[in-house]
Amino acid sequence: MLTLPPKVTPRAYERLTEIGAQADGKALRVAVEGGGCSGFQYDISLAEPAEDDLVLEGPGGERVVVDSVSLPFLQDAVIDFRDELIGARFVVDNPNVTSSCGCGVSFSM
């Protein structure tokens, strides 16, 4: 079975440039953890890449990293940045999610 890594939108890379993440040696870490009322939730933070991370690099040197445990859960997902009336945040559009909780924080696969 072909494993497709997550994709990162140009807007997500642009936002990482705006906040100066690569200048500080940081990357956007996207991880899947157990938790929430539906079983899984995303942990999105700025962190230094680890040795076994998949590193997705943008045109300006911006980096998004995914650890090896989370990678199967993020196959073919899209990591984006959205600036909406309700707030600005990095989001994951994941085609592998089968359902999510009412508040939208956790999901199941």
TrEMBL record:
<dbReference type="InterPro" id="IPR035903">
    <property type="entry name" value="HesB-like_dom_sf"/>
</dbReference>
<dbReference type="GO" id="GO:0005506">
    <property type="term" value="F:iron ion binding"/>
</dbReference>
<dbReference type="InterPro" id="IPR017870">
    <property type="entry name" value="FeS_cluster_insertion_CS"/>
</dbReference>
<dbReference type="GO" id="GO:0051539">
    <property type="term" value="F:4 iron, 4 sulfur cluster binding"/>
</dbReference>
<dbReference type="Pfam" id="PF01521">
    <property type="entry name" value="Fe-S_biosyn"/>
</dbReference>
<feature type="domain" description="Core">
    <location>
        <begin position="7"/>
        <end position="104"/>
    </location>
</feature>
<dbReference type="InterPro" id="IPR016092">
    <property type="entry name" value="ATAP"/>
</dbReference>
<dbReference type="InterPro" id="IPR000361">
    <property type="entry name" value="ATAP_core_dom"/>
</dbReference>
<dbReference type="GO" id="GO:0051537">
    <property type="term" value="F:2 iron, 2 sulfur cluster binding"/>
</dbReference>
<dbReference type="GO" id="GO:0016226">
    <property type="term" value="P:iron-sulfur cluster assembly"/>
</dbReference>
<protein>
    <submittedName>
        <fullName>Iron-sulfur cluster assembly accessory protein</fullName>
    </submittedName>
</protein>
